[in-house]
Structures are given as C-alpha cells and as structure tokens.
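Researcher: Please predict.
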Amino acid sequence: MSEIGELLEDAALDAAVMAWVQDGAEVRGLLSEVGNVAFEAVRPVRQFPAYRGLRNFPGLYYAASLDAHVGFESWLERDHAMLLDFDPAVTAFSSQPFWLAWEVGGRRRQHAPDFFARRMDGGAWVIDCRPEKRVDERSAEAFEFTRRACQRLGWGYRLVGEIDAARVGNLRWLAGYRHKRHGQARSLAAAVMAAFTLPAPLTRQAAEVGDPLEVLPVVFHLLWRGELSADLSRPFSEHTIVCRAGR
C-alpha cells in the first residue's frame, strides 16, 4: 500500500463507527470509544431470517458454556460457534456483535462480523466465517478493514473457513453430550475419571465402569468439558484411546 493509501486508511479508521445493541437500543461509538464494551454479552445487530428457498441454513446453537442460544447464518458458522463453545480459553462469545461502518474514497461501507469471543486472559477475538473460495474482492476489503480496526483496538482477528472433517465430526458428536445433565451423576463421573487415569480404549474401559449405555454419555460429556482427552484428529471408534486431561 502507498503512503497516501495508508494515510487514507488511517483516516478511515479514525472516523470508523461501531454500532451495537444494548438494553434493546442501538448505541454508536468511534473506535477510540468502544474498547471497554462487553461485546461478548450484546444482542445480535441483525436477525437470522429463515424462509422457503433460502440458500443458507440459519438457526440457533445452544452454547453450553453460556447456557444460552447463539445465532448462526450457515452450517459453517454453526460449526465455529460449536468450536468456540468447546474452547476452554473462551469465556463468552456472541454472534453478529456489531456493525462496523467506514468510508474510503467516497464509498460508504459497513460490515457485521460473525462472532466476538472473550478470552480467559481478558483479550478478544473477532471472527468471520467464509470459505476461501467464496472470498471475493468486496468481502476481502471488508475483512481487511475489520482486521485493521481490531488491531487498532488490541483485539485479534480471524477469517476462518472449513474445519478439518475428522475434527469437526468428532466435535459434532461430543456436542450431543454438552449439556450439563450428562454430568449430573457425580459418583458415575468420578468412577469414569478414575477408570481413565491411564490411557485406555474407549468402549472397553467404559464397560468396566458399568453399563455402556449409562457410562458412555458421561465419558463424552467429560471429553466435551476437557476433563478427559482424546485425539480429535481421527474419527472416534470403540478403540479410541481416552485418558484424563494432562496425562
């Protein structure tokens, strides 16, 4: 980028405005004014419409880490919402958290990122979900300006695409057991943790604890919570090695 181009973009960043929903009303602020806003707790700035003939697949994902639903506009976004829900370094997240509006070369633009995630260390990530083959010139410009706005605020920015098939398949399976009800039998959970103190095959070791129909949901719940661990890069099977986290 030329020096003039950089000056123009810096000026655009200085004048850029964020808009978000707080207590049911829209609030606006310059980039310099929004650094302390808890965007992980805001409502979406736009709706998630569903109607006959719609080409994408919107919906609501139940985030166990939030005990709340988070909206998504595509299955790709749903998978990344699931990944945020699974990530122990993420304490809270929201979807469609704000509008970012700016002007460059007389053209007015605005963009609403897909997710805002607050990290355990207090930092933040802004996330857009788009397969690489679907990133055209216009969207690439919006993503790059969003990245620079995040950089100005001290936030991280990620443009993410498809998740590895084996990993996302495993996460979808574990997500079926993410609700806390699967871990409420504490004596059984304790027995499972004791059984997997050392690495052992999933089904065989679960059967040693008790009826697999009762034990396996607890194992999957503890895997989701990160108290047990397994190699998520390979599809789960009865022979998958499971152990206590950190072993």
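Model: The chain has a mean pLDDT of 92.
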